[in-house]
Amino acid sequence: GDSVTQMEGPVTLSEEACLTINCTYTATGYPSLFWYVQYPGEGLQLLLKATKADDKGSNKGFEATYRKETTSFHLEKGSVQVSDSAVYFCALHISSGSARQLTFGSGTQLTVLP
Amino acid sequence: DGGITQSPKYLFRKEGQNVTLSCEQNLNHDAMYWYRQDPGQGLRLIYYSQIVNDFQKGDIAEGYSVSREKKESFPLTVTSAQKNPTAFYLCASSIVTGTGGTSLHFGNGTRLTVT
Predict the structure, then answer these.
(1) DSSP sequence for chain B
(2) Cβ pair A34:B58 closer than 8 A
(3) Which of A41, A65, A101, A107 has the CA that lies 20 to 30 A from A49?
């Protein structure tokens, strides 16, 4: 079946450090790929997405490129801020008829220290 | 503003009691979902519904029940048969199209504690 493997956390960085959170996937078809972010005590919010190979999703300084050859969708940011502290989830979706389901990774906790 | 409202934010129950979690959306989305979140395990799908009066089991439906009598509402009942009900529960919705790339909109969750 479809699956998503995320870099295990927790990850602790100093403010202005570079961030990479690895995400690889296994899928039988051609998935759309997503990064969601969850701030403390809240639900998930869509951070960025990519729907086909070589697409780059970007938002709030975060970027991720859909790499079909390596089945990866790594999340990157050049300079993190304290406000980026959250849990980050990689997810994939393959449309199957009208079913709308996502397969999530286990999440990576990021803490940014001032 | 459109969104998803889950209530209550915190819920406490005694073991053996059924409890119902509320989820309401005003996004006019056809599809709604319930996920369970446990530390270190990501999100697991409990039930989902694509249209009113229809719903399907997800990966961990045992011990849970749902109804979808209105497009806006998708309540989740955690029954006494659920062996480990303490968790964070997230409701979500999405439009239904024939293509990929559509994202989910999430509520802020209900933290259920059963003692």
Answers:
(1) ---EEEE-SEEEE-TT--EEEEEEE-S--SEEEEEEE-TTS-EEEEEEEEETTEEEE-TT-TTEEE--SBTTB--EEE-TT-S---EEEEEEEE---SSS-PPPEE---EEEEE-
(2) no
(3) A41
